């Protein structure tokens, strides 16, 4: 896109209003913030014909195979879950649908929450192991 | 893809954002061109021969607009 | 009933046959094998999961993830390519460009230049919202970095008339990425001070060529973005994995066949060993990691039924090549954090509703 602009240079950056931004941490230069701090996650439960809550479909917005497949795998690792699958209904819509059916002991939503928690634990283990291995590798290299 | 058209110089030079544009002085008929051969800037008045004053070359280029143009780096 | 060690080994291999692959899908789910559990167990995972680093250059890492499913390894790879945020030139304000490179072409080239700067400083930066209605769409010192490029080409009169090399005949006959200068705004001089100033990772990228009288004068706005939006935001040149190859010799391959067997693989994969007592030659596999799984062995009748090729299902050889804003190891750790963040966010939203 091209268009001519009337201003010649940028307007100066406005003074940062720490009070109104409600973000006291920001002024603390020693402790930088996490970029991805905001929670913009959007998830909805898709309509079901019955009151049976042991099966449900969820729609994740702005998610794709990245989370879809990993989450599907870890939910399938749950012995209470009878079925779990995901699909991306249309490639030009940033949406991911996930279907969960349990054997009835837990609700589908519980299974999804457990799956997310398990995947989070997995990430912590991966981080720990990577940091430990990096330390070992650099120590070995120095010798 | 839409680009605002070239705005011809008007009295008062409304459109120009930087000094040295065509619309600076409405009474001034002199225009600046660039010689296609030696690259020097040539000022030509109304009625002057179209010719570089340095090297005599007869092809002159118009200067690029001084307006700022915005692009997306995509 | 617990499966035998042999059975477990077999399950780990994706078989590569002459014209097909088999045993492709993972079977480690509850209910797949009668009497076996396979439920998710964090302690079990912690025990079995391994990472081995093989190459650790700042911008080029190679490491193995062992004991994890392809879906998770793929999530890390996909996040590395498309979801780790970086800074890149997003808008170009052209004041003057009389070079032969058209404005829009130059702008696109500029966008692809990888940038670097103080890593801690980047953490102060925020997303700049694209929707002009939102307040965060306005350019401020914490969502926009300003860079300038101002180069004019002139003749060098100090060279002899016989000179033909444009780089000696003219000043600034080539415009390089190093000519892009950081114009700090607001508090950016503190965040990106001294050696931490924002600049191109590779100063020698040729942006345009100029001749006397030609000039480039422009201002650029850099914003944070992710690879999903545009490839220029991708923090990696490549992030990929392959499965560790496996070569199993089921019956001894001896004599001349042994030499031929070794010749079927890239150097260092297999070698001929001579028995000290009998003097018999025998082929052994030394380093399957170096194999390309070309399946050359399977083309020869003398090896029929004697060798089995495959890949280890849960052994991922990761290679992460950074474009320079972050080091490769930092990128991988960030990718893991981003996956974790997704989990936390959705969990939060589900517990709220």
From TrEMBL, chain A:
PROSITE patterns: RNA_POL_L_13KD. This is DNA-directed RNA polymerases I and III subunit RPAC2. One of its GO terms (biological process) is transcription by RNA polymerase III. Residues 1-10 have a biased composition (Basic and acidic residues). Residues 55-128 form the DNA-directed RNA polymerase RBP11-like dimerisation domain. PANTHER family: DNA-DIRECTED RNA POLYMERASE I,II,III (PTHR13946), DNA-DIRECTED RNA POLYMERASES I AND III SUBUNIT RPAC2 (PTHR13946:SF28). Residues 14-33 have a biased composition (Acidic residues). One of its GO terms (molecular function) is DNA-directed RNA polymerase activity. It comes from the Eukaryota. Keywords: DNA-directed RNA polymerase, Nucleus, Transcription. Gene3D superfamilies: RNA polymerase, RBP11-like subunit (3.30.1360.10). Residues 1-34 are annotated as: Disordered. GO terms for cellular component: nuclear DNA-directed RNA polymerase complex; RNA polymerase I complex; RNA polymerase III complex. It holds the Pfam family RNA_pol_L_2. Belongs to the archaeal Rpo11/eukaryotic RPB11/RPC19 RNA polymerase subunit family. It is found in: Nucleus. Its main location: nucleus.
From TrEMBL, chain B:
Pfam families: Zn_ribbon_RPAB4. SUPFAM superfamilies: RNA polymerase subunits. It is found in: Nucleus. GO terms for cellular component: RNA polymerase I complex; RNA polymerase II, core complex; RNA polymerase III complex. The keyword Lipid metabolism does not apply. Residues 1-10 have a biased composition (Low complexity). SMART domains: RPOLCX (SM00659). The keyword Zinc applies. Residues 11-23 have a biased composition (Gly residues). Residues 1-25 are annotated as: Disordered. Keywords: Cytoplasm, DNA-directed RNA polymerase, Metal-binding, Nucleotidyltransferase, Nucleus, Transcription, Transferase, Zinc. One of its GO terms (biological process) is DNA-templated transcription. GO terms for molecular function: DNA binding; DNA-directed RNA polymerase activity; zinc ion binding. It comes from the Eukaryota. Belongs to the archaeal Rpo12/eukaryotic RPC10 RNA polymerase subunit family. This is DNA-directed RNA polymerase core subunit rpc10. The lineage of its organism: Eukaryota, Fungi, Dikarya, Ascomycota, Pezizomycotina. The gene is RPC10.
TrEMBL record, chain C:
Pfam families: RNA_pol_A_bac, RNA_pol_L. InterPro entries: DNA-dir_RNA_pol_30-40kDasu_CS (IPR001514), DNA-dir_RNA_pol_insert (IPR011262), DNA-dir_RNA_pol_RpoA/D/Rpb3 (IPR011263), RBP11-like (IPR036603), RNAP_Rpo3/Rpb3/RPAC1 (IPR022842), RNAPI/III_AC40 (IPR033901), RNApol_insert_sf (IPR036643), Rpo3/RPB3_RNA_Pol_subunit (IPR050518). SUPFAM superfamilies: Insert subdomain of RNA polymerase alpha subunit, RBP11-like subunits of RNA polymerase. It comes from the Eukaryota. GO terms for molecular function: DNA binding; DNA-directed RNA polymerase activity; protein dimerization activity. Gene3D superfamilies: DNA-directed RNA polymerase, insert domain (2.170.120.12), RNA polymerase, RBP11-like subunit (3.30.1360.10). Residues 60-349 form the DNA-directed RNA polymerase RpoA/D/Rpb3-type domain. GO terms for cellular component: RNA polymerase I complex; RNA polymerase III complex. It is found in: Nucleus. Transmembrane segments: none annotated. GO terms for biological process: transcription by RNA polymerase III; transcription elongation by RNA polymerase I. Its main location: nucleus. The keyword Nucleus applies. Keywords: DNA-directed RNA polymerase, Nucleus, Transcription. SMART domains: RPOLD. Belongs to the archaeal Rpo3/eukaryotic RPB3 RNA polymerase subunit family. HAMAP family: RNApol_arch_Rpo3. This is DNA-directed RNA polymerases I and III subunit RPAC1. It comes from Orbilia brochopaga. The lineage of its organism: Eukaryota, Fungi, Dikarya, Ascomycota, Pezizomycotina.
């Amino acid at each position: 896109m091209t268009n001519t602009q009337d201003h010649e240079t940028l307007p100066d950056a406005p003074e940062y209003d720490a009070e109104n931004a409600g973000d006291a941490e920001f002024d603390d230069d020693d402790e930088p913030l996490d970029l991805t701090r905001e929670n913009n996650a959007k998830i909805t439960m898709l309509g079901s014909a019955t009151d049976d809550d042991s099966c449900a479909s969820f729609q994740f917005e702005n998610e794709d195979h990245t989370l879809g497949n990993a989450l599907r795998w870890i939910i399938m690792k749950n012995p209470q879950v009878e079925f779990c699958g995901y699909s991306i209904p249309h490639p030009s819509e940033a949406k991911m649908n996930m279907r969960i059916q349990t054997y009835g002991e837990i609700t589908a939503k519980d299974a999804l929450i457990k799956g997310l928690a398990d995947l989070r634990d997995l990430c912590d283990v991966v981080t720990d192991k990577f940091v430990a291995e990096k330390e070992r590798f650099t120590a070995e290299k120095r010798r | 893809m839409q680009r605002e058209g070239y705005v011809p110089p008007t009295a008062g030079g409304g459109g120009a954002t930087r000094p040295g544009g065509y619309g600076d002085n409405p009474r001034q008929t002199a225009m600046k061109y660039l010689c296609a051969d030696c690259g020097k800037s040539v000022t030509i008045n109304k009625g002057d021969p179209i010719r570089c004053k340095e090297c005599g070359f007869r092809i002159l280029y118009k200067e690029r607009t001084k307006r700022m143009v915005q692009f997306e780096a995509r | 009933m617990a499966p035998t060690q042999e059975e477990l080994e077999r399950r780990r291999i994706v078989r590569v046959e002459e014209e097909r692959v088999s045993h492709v899908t993972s079977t480690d789910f509850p209910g797949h094998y009668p009497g076996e559990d396979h439920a998710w167990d964090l302690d079990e995972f912690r025990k079995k999961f391994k990472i081995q680093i093989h190459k650790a250059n700042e911008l080029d890492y190679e490491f193995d993830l062992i004991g994890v499913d392809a879906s998770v390894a793929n999530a890390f790879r996909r996040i590395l390519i498309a979801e780790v945020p970086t800074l890149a030139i997003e808008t170009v304000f052209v004041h003057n460009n009389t070079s032969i490179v058209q404005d829009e072409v130059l702008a696109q080239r500029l966008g692809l230049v990888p940038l670097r700067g103080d890593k801690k400083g980047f953490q102060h930066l925020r997303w700049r919202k694209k929707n002009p209605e939102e307040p965060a769409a306005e350019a401020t010192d914490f969502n926009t970095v300003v860079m300038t490029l101002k180069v004019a080409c002139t003749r060098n009169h100090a060279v002899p008339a016989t000179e033909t090399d444009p780089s000696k005949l003219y000043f600034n006959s080539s415009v390089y990425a190093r000519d892009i200068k950081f114009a700090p705004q607001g508090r950016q001089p503190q965040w990106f001070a001294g050696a931490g100033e924002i600049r191109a990772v590779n100063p020698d990228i040729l942006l345009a060529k100029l001749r006397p009288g030609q000039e480039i004068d422009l201002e650029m706005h850099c914003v944070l973005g992710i690879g999903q939006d545009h490839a220029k935001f991708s923090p990696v040149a490549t992030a990929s994995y392959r499965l560790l190859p496996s070569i199993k010799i089921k019956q001894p391959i001896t004599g001349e066949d042994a030499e031929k067997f070794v010749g079927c693989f890239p150097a260092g994969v297999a070698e001929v060993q001579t028995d000290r007592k009998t003097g018999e030659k025998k082929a052994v596999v030394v380093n399957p990691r170096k194999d390309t799984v070309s399946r050359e062995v399977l083309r020869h009748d003398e090896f029929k039924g004697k060798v089995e090729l495959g890949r280890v299902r849960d052994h991922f050889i990761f290679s992460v090549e950074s474009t320079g804003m972050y080091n490769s190891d930092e990128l991988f750790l960030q990718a893991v954090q981003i996956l974790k963040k997704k989990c936390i966010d959705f969990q939060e939203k589900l517990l709220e509703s």
